[in-house]
Amino acid sequence: MIKYLMEKEFKQLLRNAFLPRLIFIFPCMIMILMPWAANMEIHNIYLNIIDNDHSTLSQRLVDKIAASTYFRLTDLPDSYAVGLQAVEAGTADIILEIPRGFEKDWTNGSSPQVLIAANAVNGTKGGLGSSYLVQIIRDYAAQLRAEQPAVLPSASGGVPSIQISSQNLFNPYLNYKLFMIPALMVMLLTMLCGFLPALNIVSEKEVGTIEQINVTPVPKFTFILAKLLPYWIIGFLVLTICFGLAWLLYGILPVGRFGVIYVFAILFVLAISGMGLVISNYSTTMQQAMFVMWFCMLILILMSGLFTPISSMPEWGQLITYFNPLKYFMQVMRMVYLKGSGFADLFSQLLALLAFVLFFNSWAILSYKKNT
């Protein structure tokens, strides 16, 4: 039975001369134009400082950085290896390592060297965060020179300064497209697999054809599944095309495995399709459904971390993002593409998407009214 219902859906879709073309042209335009059109402002950068010197001067530097409005000092690890683990876990954006002998070198007229290692998965955030930190350190060096005008000159004959070495982790060249493109694929799946089938159901309500289904013995689960499957197939086909476009246009391939992405994509599509069905069940006209879907789409995208990092949002905004399925799949896409993460690293995202699948699909099935 489901075979014939799916055949009906494909025929109905292909009869529309415009929609099939739009479905494939739209992802191409998004992949070509959107990565060039985004910008963002950075706040609340999570910082770990490794103070190997534990001197008065190094402690003053730590306090000066912690007082900045751009950074949140989250930890003072004992070693660089521990700090790097925090970056890989996502609890730190930047590591600052102050070497042993920092105060001694400065007092003797040498130029101590500090290390800045930034998580450059989000190239803009990593680059700007490093720039902010470099500027604070340079201001601190100028302050020290003003306080100690009689300090000994360095071996090169000039006044001492603090030398800085920077590293950009996961995205060495701070390529912002590496951050945006995986998230744009999530947005495309949301529209193709979540909202298009829901609009299809509402359009049948408007023209009255759904009444013909309602008087048949077709179970509501079979009917809903037949409505969704064609768009799921199209969605995964478009996702595969996007992988190819990302490689052809930008030379971007995931560090991790495509299989991990597809497994999480299945869960995400199940969740977002359930949300679309819930909207369609409570909508009686296309106008009403489109307005509700546009409202939901706008909120979901803005609160997902697509353009701006979630950590830069106010605390109440960050709480709202816990109820946004787009946030979790965007994290998956970026972590697989840039870090090569596997299922063990994405366990919390897996649980969150499973919860959304159960919640939205249960709600959709229970709220669908089939009059016999």
**What value does the average pLDDT take?**
82
Q: Helical segment tally?
A: 14
Largest beta sheet: strand ordering: 2-1-3-4-5
Look at the helices and sheets and give the structural class.
Answer: alpha/beta
Coarse shape: elongated
Summarize the helix and strand pattern as letters. Answer: HHEHEHEHEHEHHHHHHHH
Spans of at least 5 consecutive residues with low confidence: none
Q: What is the CA–CA distance across the termini?
A: 18 Å
Strand count, sense and closure of the main sheet?
Answer: 5 strands, mixed
Count of DSSP E strands?
5
Strand content: 5-15%
Helix fraction?
55-70%
Radius of gyration: 26 Å
Description:
The protein has 14 helices and 5 strands. It is an alpha/beta fold and 372 residues long. Helix 7 runs antiparallel to helix 9 and helix 7 packs parallel to helix 10. A 5-stranded mixed β-sheet has the order 2-1-3-4-5, sandwiched between helices. The protein starts with a helix and ends in a 5-residue tail after the last helix.
List keywords for this structure.
372 residues; five-stranded mixed β-sheet; alpha/beta
What does the secondary structure layout of this molecule look like, with pairings?
Layout lengths: L1 H14 L3 H15 L11 E7 L4 H11 L4 E5 L4 H10 L4 E5 L3 H6 L5 E7 L3 H25 L15 E7 L6 H32 L2 H5 L5 H31 L7 H24 L4 H17 L12 H7 L3 H15 L7 H21 L5
Parallel strand pairs: 1-2, 1-3, 4-5
Antiparallel strand pairs: 3-4
